[in-house]
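Appendix C. Worked example: PucR C-terminal helix-turn-helix domain-containing protein
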Amino acid sequence: MSLTVADVLALPGLASMRLRAGQAGRDNAVRWPYVAENEGIAEWVMGGELIFVTGINHPRDEANLLRLVREGHERVVAGLVILTGAEFIQTIPTSVIAEAERLNLPLIEQPYALKMVVVTQAIGTALVHAQQLGRSRQHVLEQVLDGDYQSLDVLLQRGDSLGLALHVPRQVTLLRLDGSEQLFGDLADDDAERQLQSRQQLLQRRLEQCLGELGNALPLISQGRHWIALLPCADASAEARNRQAMTVLLDELRPQLGPLRLFLGLGSAGCDAPRFAQGLGEARQALAVAQRFPERLGLCSFNELGVLELLGAIRDRSLLDRFVERVVGPLIGDDSRHQPVLMPTLEAWFAENGNLALAAQRLNVHRNTLSYRLQRIEALTGCSFEDPHDRLNISVALLIRRLSSPA
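Step 2, the predicted output written as structure tokens:
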């Protein structure tokens, strides 16, 4: 469970704090309160903080307050609290309120008469309670998802006591954020860590907002670079709605998360609590395909896997490796000894459904060159492109290669 900006405003003793802008961000999760003492905050926050601006240790004119609003938005902070009174910051400039509203950043006014120690103690206490409840909820959800329980009935009763709607049919969704290695390779460690934290905070916030919009929300489960979301999904109509919502979310976040890449796998619809573990396994299979097949555009549903469902269910990977070696091993070997052109040629030919002109265009070679390569492929493999059984074997071997390749 997260403590939100709205929760902070509702805490006992904090009634004199007023939300002046950024109503759309009231559900932003507050990770911790932070008092800004420097001219800017970009270098000092990781995302999710509720920033307090007093003006005591640094002058805060209109230009500086605008800077803080923009840096707070960039760093995905939960919100900005500006203390006002007669001595330091008399009023919040209209331009600052307008900018916070434009950026959907919660902007709160706190009178100096409300002591900071009262505010931070109230927020700190609420954060501890929220974190304890959140850990309990996550533990129950992880037990159900792992199938790690002695009595499901007892676990569901505990879920009810924690306010978890576990009796609603769900669709297990698994998300993965990749590319942190590139981030740390391109930037200094401190800058890379800040950007990673900022992007993770952005992703978490948008996921939680999306879950809230879908209704009957369960807490988002964060596990390293993975997130598990349990979307309400009773039928095919809800399944289509979920896929569309996740597609929109992916398209929205893609440019904001760069160079990190977000991938998403959806399990089957109508999954009840006893089948959450099965749904998670389905979502893992779909996620693997989303990662390894670029044409999926980062998202795949379990019901879209087709033959990949069968291939992914084979636990003895040596069976798949032997099949690939038997069908296309000679081509892989030839490409390792010479210029690697045969496997790319085969992949292009299948990608264009056997259309020579389009396959040649894809490879940027002459059609005669492509025909020669296809003849060499047939000679090396002993397969014929005219034989439907041979074409099926080659197609499956190519799928296994892509499914087994590093993400």
